[in-house]
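// run 5 | inverse folding | seed 20
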């Protein structure tokens, strides 16, 4: 609602003179983009590098260390361990004619980033990548301004590009798509200059030709972009008075690059065919195009429009551009349609483990130009709607960047977008949005048509309301948008049998925010009556909550996310007397914190000293056959902000890990080298007492001397340990609580691969910690 009220005012704001000057504004845009990209890179440092990023980086290392592209020895030496903790196998499908392993990934990104990697390692590569992306924003600003003559259009289009998920997340991750998009922007800048009839110097023709020549080296699929853009530019250049001279300057580098590119495949794989590294495993077929295009555009987890709705404006921008310059509109459409169809034919259209719409990024600037045209020709109401869509797209980027350390960024192909799941805990939003990974293509298309109809209805209502009133109309339009979205969700939900409303996650959210001190009124709707607010938690019953397709591995009998700290009665419901054994696990692990032997005697109780990232119950075969459901009933709920990402039981002591700076390996755990880890040690038994009066942390250094600082509430201890040395640290009396919050600062570390013959463990480890009863170390 606030955005709706602000949008008309923003649409009327006069551009500050400094932001309209073509000699200054592009560099301001680039600086702002670089700052935004750097902020994202820092916020997501625990999530990246991921997916194929390490494979591009190790090619750079091979170039720097060995002067070649043979990567088998680099993997064998573990050159990647400074940025990748686990073993990384060579990513290849076919050896070269010399019997050596060459990466399936193109070497262009490695060549681009090698100088920065040589100077500052992985952080240097990220810095150079985002600076190149920021340069692309500056060139895009100039291209849109030259096309429209409108500085506001240039700023809106640049923001639509830089602050939307596809471009933003590939600006600082080590994939070829970000640099590929910058090369495409350079080609579009020249295309717009020729459309406007501007004179282009020979140096700039050579530079743009060089940018397009680099595209196939970044990724084989980018050769299609280079070919289409190169063709339309040559056709335009020939028509100029100095046409053939300009064409020779423009094609000088592409011709040399193309010859070298085909020779590259011939020398290594014995054929000039660019698909040689893939062997027969190309995964591309014309039959995949329909599903691939639908997924690239509409899928809630990986689709363009679902994650960057601002690009919906490009549809109207193309119509406006076609009326002004049909040729330019046709050239841009040709590029987008041909490239999107080519990547849609690839079976893995979502791009693997990566941010949304990765495979569209390199060609997507061609859709940004029409956004600028739409803004330049739009009325104030239409501009207000464009700003709303831009704000929504940027807000989605912010959520994926900053919520839970970037945990919403990368999706598994389970048909439930993490961002939608986070946005509402009361209803199943992922079920209401199109997904190509949840069912048949026809179902996703039908859902998309329903949402497109709802979007059209919202557009009509918003335009009418904004035209009818300068201020209040937009309030009504935003209300109409909310009603339209609720209506579309309701209609889509009716197509599915169940799981539309998820009261369990809603109840968990209530418990998470529960504070009897300010929630003093309780209300029961059926029968209607007031009730004691303090009694509300005990009235809740939490059943299993699964809002996406179950992950691979053992299927839990019960699972629930973000379970608050507290005591819970566990109710096992079966058709007969339940039997078997059930383990309780917290977070991303299979190590249990509790185990229940189902004898029917009960009661069973679960104690959580901190909020759990998730709680799951895993049962043996007898339990799976005898249980129908498991229910948690809150007995006493605490207000604890800490969240355990994992947990494990070590004898009579349970440990809850609050971050990813530890590695659980029964009978203890390693801390990460040079890290600050926080754990919660808990000895509370099921009856509320303590099984161990004074647990002891037994701390042992690894292969190198290490300094460890431990502290908790009112106590601290510093250990300077020689290699292999052990020290015992008794925890102080915690009274009846039986819970200690321990901060473990490790200074120093080692990698087992460097000290243990035959080891393939590249992790940077700090100290080993075990827990036991009070006494001297063994």
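// decoded
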């Amino acid at each position: 609602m606030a955005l709706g009220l602000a949008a008309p005012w923003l649409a009327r704001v006069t551009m500050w003179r400094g932001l309209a000057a073509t000699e200054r504004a592009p560099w301001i845009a680039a600086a702002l983009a670089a700052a935004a990209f750097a902020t994202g890179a820092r916020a997501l440092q625990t999530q990246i590098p991921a997916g194929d990023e390490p494979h591009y980086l190790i090619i750079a290392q091979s170039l720097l260390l060995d002067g070649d592209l043979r990567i088998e020895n680099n993997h064998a030496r573990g050159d990647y361990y400074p940025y990748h903790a686990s073993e990384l196998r060579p990513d290849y499908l076919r050896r070269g004619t010399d019997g050596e392993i060459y990466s399936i990934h193109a070497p262009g990104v490695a060549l681009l980033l090698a100088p920065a990697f040589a100077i500052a390692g992985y952080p240097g590569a990220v810095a150079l990548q985002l600076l190149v992306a920021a340069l692309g924003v500056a060139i895009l600003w100039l291209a849109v301004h030259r096309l429209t003559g409108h500085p506001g259009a240039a700023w809106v289009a640049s923001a639509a590009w830089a602050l939307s998920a596809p471009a933003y997340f590939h600006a600082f991750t080590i994939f070829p798509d970000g640099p590929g998009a910058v090369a495409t922007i350079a080609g579009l800048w020249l295309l717009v200059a020729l459309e406007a009839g501007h004179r282009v110097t020979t140096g700039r023709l050579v530079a743009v030709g060089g940018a397009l020549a680099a595209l196939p080296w970044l990724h084989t699929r980018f050769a299609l972009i280079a070919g289409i853009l190169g063709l339309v530019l040559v056709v335009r250049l020939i028509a100029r008075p100095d046409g053939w001279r300009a064409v020779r300057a423009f094609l000088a580098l592409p011709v040399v690059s193309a010859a070298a590119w085909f020779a590259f495949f011939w020398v290594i794989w014995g054929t000039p065919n660019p698909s040689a590294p893939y062997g027969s495993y190309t995964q591309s077929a014309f039959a995949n195009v329909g599903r691939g295009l639908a997924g690239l555009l509409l899928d809630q987890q990986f689709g363009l429009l679902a994650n960057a709705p601002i690009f919906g404006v490009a549809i109207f921008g193309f119509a406006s551009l076609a009326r002004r310059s049909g040729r330019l509109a046709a050239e841009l459409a040709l590029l987008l349609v041909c490239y999107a169809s080519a990547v849609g034919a690839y079976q893995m259209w979502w791009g693997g483990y990566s941010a949304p719409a990765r495979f569209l990024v390199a060609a997507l600037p061609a859709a940004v130009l029409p956004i600028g045209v739409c803004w330049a020709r739009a009325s104030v109401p239409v501009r207000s709607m464009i700003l709303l869509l831009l704000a929504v797209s940027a807000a989605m980027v912010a959520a994926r960047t900053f919520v839970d350390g970037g945990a919403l960024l990368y999706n598994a192909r389970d048909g439930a977008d993490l961002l939608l799941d986070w946005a509402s805990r009361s209803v199943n939003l992922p079920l209401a949005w199109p997904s190509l990974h949840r069912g048949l293509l026809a179902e996703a298309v039908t859902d998309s048509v329903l949402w497109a109809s709802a979007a059209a209805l919202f557009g009509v209502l918003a335009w009418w309301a904004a035209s009818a009133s300068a201020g209040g109309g937009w309030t009504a339009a935003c209300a109409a948008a909310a009603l339209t979205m609720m209506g579309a969700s309701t209609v889509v939900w009716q197509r599915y049998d169940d799981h539309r409303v998820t009261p369990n996650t809603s109840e968990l959210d209530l418990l998470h925010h529960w504070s009897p001190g300010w929630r003093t009124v309780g209300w029961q709707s059926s029968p209607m009556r007031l009730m004691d607010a303090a009694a509300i938690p005990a009235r809740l019953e939490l059943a299993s909550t699964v809002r996406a397709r179950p992950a691979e591995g053992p299927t839990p009998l019960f699972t629930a996310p973000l379970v608050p700290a507290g005591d819970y009665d566990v109710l096992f419901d079966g058709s007969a007397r339940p039997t078997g054994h059930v383990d309780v696990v917290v977070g991303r692990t299979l190590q249990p914190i509790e185990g229940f032997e189902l004898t029917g005697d009960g009661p069973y109780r679960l104690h959580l000293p901190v909020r759990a990232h998730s709680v799951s119950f895993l049962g043996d075969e007898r339990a799976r056959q005898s249980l129908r459901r498991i229910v948690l009933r809150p007995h006493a709920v605490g207000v604890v902000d800490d969240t355990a990402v994992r947990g494990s039981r070590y004898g009579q002591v349970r440990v809850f890990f609050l971050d990813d700076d530890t590695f659980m390996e029964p009978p203890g755990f390693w801390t990460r080298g040079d890290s600050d880890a926080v754990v919660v040690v808990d000895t509370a038994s099921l009856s509320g007492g303590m099984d161990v009066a004074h647990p002891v942390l037994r701390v042992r250094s690894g292969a190198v001397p290490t300094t460890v600082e431990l502290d908790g509430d009112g106590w601290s201890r510093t250990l300077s340990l020689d290699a292999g040395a052990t020290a015992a640290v008794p925890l102080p009396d915690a009274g009846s609580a039986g819970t200690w919050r321990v901060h473990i600062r490790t200074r120093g570390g080692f990698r087992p691969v460097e000290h243990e013959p035959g080891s393939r463990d590249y992790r940077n480890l700090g100290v080993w910690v075990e827990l036991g009863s009070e006494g001297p170390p063994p």
